[in-house]
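Ticket closed. Logging final result for Nucleolar protein 58.
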Amino acid sequence: MLVLYETAAGFALFKLVDDGKMEKPENIWKDFQTAEQANKTVKLKAFQKFENTTDALSAVTGIVEGKLPKNLKKFLETEISDKEMKKESLIICDPKLGSAVNKKLGINVVSDSTVMDLYRGIREQLESLITGLSHSDINAMSLGLSHSLSRYKLKFSPDKVDTMIVQAIALLDDLDKELNIYAMRVKEWYGWHFPEMARIIVDNLAYAKVVKLMGFRTNAQDMDLSTVLPEELEKELKDAAEISMGTEISQDDIENIHELCDQVISITEYRTQLYEYLKNRMNAIAPNLTMLVGELVGARLIAHAGSLMNLAKQPASTIQILGAEKALFRALKTKHDTPKYGLIYHASLIGQAGPKLKGKIARMVATKASISVRVDALGDTDTPDIGLAGRTKIESRLRQLEGRAGAQINKDKSGGKKQEAFQFNKSTAYSSKSDTVMTEASTEKKEKKEKKEKKRKADDVEEEEEEEETVVEVKKEKKEKKRKTEDDEEKKEKKKSKKDKKDADEESSSKKDKKKKKSKSD
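Final structure:
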């Protein structure tokens, strides 16, 4: 029996000296306790060394996927003769590789659980069985091949790490909140001393820098603020400082305000640096998505989904309302209209659209964004071609919907002749060519139209007659019903009168009988 053993250095083909030992595989480990016993049990028949790491990686990836590599097939065909192919059996550890070898070469393959102890013994005594391979060489080759194989499996790229984007956008939002709080505190604190300054200088960074440079408002006239403010604002600030209604503060107060201004300036500078970092990282990881919706919106979509791959798995409808989950579930619960957009609303393309077109443009942006994200996550190219094409298409569609100059105009493709310019004809004679003659076709058309009009009028007359008949029938039915009700009432009255008359007769007869009886008794 032959044994195929795969190493990080190459393929080794061993010959099992005694085939009967495979009948009791549980005892085969005893034959590999020492190097001498191992050499007596198996003999090295051939060894094919890998030329480089690329060759080793292609061979190992083929084995992992259950395919027979070309170099292994060539090695087995050269080292195993046709007679051995028919007589011998080949022991292979991997069942998938064994079935592939059996299909391609037709050799009998043994790849079950009974061969595991044999492979463990060969692995322990590999240095003695294959000469020229040291333990350190095998370890180095195994480490390099494992790294290459892992990189191939994961398709890992240091530039594709989206964790940096998730952390950066979260930190950017935190910095914005903190910066807003600190800047408002500076304005409220310094506003006691110079309240007019908050109205003149709106920018937080410029406000903090001016406070840091000027200190007390009395120093405004002697201070050069041209490095921070434009000339108009500087003049307005100095004029306001002279007539300010603010209260006086101490040196200790201004020192603490300066410390807070330093915090505002440093946080603002770090935020600018962080934004540049996020912009560069987004262009490296998701160039198409960045081109379509921008750095901040793209980063927020990735952070909300968890990763770039998770976002790529989402359909366009989910990307459209990503970030509006609360509104969505509230709308579903109350059976109201669902939201049209979530985080994607802040994209510049949707901002350009009018209020009535925002939903339609949001749907288009989400569709193109889903395509762009899948290209960024699963594609090999780093160019923003897909995102650029999608952006131009949406912009042209937006112009078309809003009726701008870029809308498509349906041109006349008939190629008709241009109308000739008017020329004044001095001749006063009447031209018979300008008369229009009624053709047979036109007369036929007129006759058909007249027939249709007559028919339509006849139909209208019939409909009116039918309506009149229905009205007359309805009136007759009402009259009959009224007559019946009157007859019924008369019958009831006659019956009632007869009954009353009968009762009166009975009463009178009973009175007469009583009188007769009374007279007899007397």
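DSSP finds 22 helices and five strands in the chain. No further action required.
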